[in-house]
Amino acid sequence: MLKKQIALLAVTILLCNLLRAQFLMDMVDTSKAEGKGILNIYKKFDHLRIGGYIQPQFQVAQSKGVKTFEGGDFGAQVSNRFMLRRSRIRIDYVHFTNNTKPSVQIVFQFDANERAFTVRDVWGRLFENNWKVLSLTTGMFARPFGYEVNLSSSDRETPERGRMSQLLMKSERDLGVMLSLDSRRKDTKLKYLRADIGFFNGQGINASGDFDNIKDFIGNIALKPYHITKKITLSAGASVLYGGLVQNTKYVFTTNIISGVKKVTVDSSASNLYQTSPRRYYGVNAQLKFKNNKGLTTEIRGEFVMGKQTGTLNNSETPVVLTTGTEGFHVRNFNGAYFYLLQQIFNNKNQLVIKYDWYDPNTNISGNEIGAAGSNFTAANIKFNTLGFGYVNYLTDNVKLVLYYAKVTNEKTQLTGYTSNVKDDVFTCRLQFRF
């Protein structure tokens, strides 16, 4: 009985201390039945990793009920709030062939907070081990577009991604399949290159399901961090998304000039029904990091995206349901960008952050053209700029403090509520706990 209790205790220790698994196995007598059972569990779970993080925060808005991209809109009578922005746990399992070459990776990630419990990632990856270059990923995972979309919320220096990233790639993830070229060998010229091509449903994980046969093609090519000198590192990338949504009605809305006035016009040709309403994104990004003589780093990041977006009358984000009746999709030309300046101060645990981003959902109009009599433009066409100032303190390897002020500016229009700048700045104080 005592031997069984000892064996059970050993199993518990093994599962809770995976990083020390090999050391513990050296202490187990595998010549006996109990020891052989523990060995089998070790072999099965040795490559299992569990990690996660939580992000409790306090926010103060410039006025009550503001609509914001700093963690979601405030309630009608709320200008300050405590919230659990993210609380995630991720489970990774990797199987190795002959204990040296990864053959399969499986990932689950979940998010639980005061608002909902959601699934963030469920995907599997197959590795090719002859050339150690290719892998195939399928399931629910982040779209391989750009840099910020794929930068983890646990690593990002600002509380949220920019307005552009959130609108074009809401929740970042989608269901699909992706082929990646990413060498795992150190002795090849391809070691600094990564390329991804994939096909996705297009609506993202916020939709209840795929509602058409049109798939998004996404291609991305990136230069992985390359040391120009011992103190200067460069990385960069270019991405394209080519997709769309099926038009469930014959009504297609675009921006045109009628009698010298810019207006929303409608094409109601019967041939529009079941055609493809386009989504075309083209983006470039770069990251440049410098290290000074004291070992402190300065990093500059930038990304620019432009293209054509299908939205609705009152929203420029990708629709998650089909339009009905006389609504129809609105097709707009857009552009947007963000720029980071990150500077370590005192030591590598203290960092200053300056970020500027903009998103213009309709580059064909601006200012007082929006809301002009008979133009039919809504707030979904307004350009926003955000200037953020932040301070990050890496208190320990597991705890990070973020103080961040987002100053938001909208262009002045003739629309009610947007004739001047809306008071929608937000200050965020966040603690992140990570394991």
3D structure, described in words:
The structure is a single chain. This protein is mainly β and 435 residues long. It has two domains: 1-46, no CATH class; 47-434, Porin, CATH 2.40.160. The chain is 9% helix and 49% strand. The longest helix has 15 residues, at 2-16. Residues 1-28 have low confidence and may be disordered.
Quickly name the level 1 CATH class of the largest domain: Mainly Beta
Order of helices and strands: HHHEEEEEHEEEEEEEEEEEEE
Overall structural class, as computed from helix and strand content, comes to mainly beta
Mean pLDDT score? 90
Architecture of the largest domain in CATH?
Answer: Beta Barrel
Shape: globular
Provide the helix percentage: under 10%
% residues in beta strands: over 45%
Overall radius of gyration: 25 Å
Please name the fourth-level CATH homologous superfamily of the largest domain: Porin
User: Total helix count?
Assistant: 4
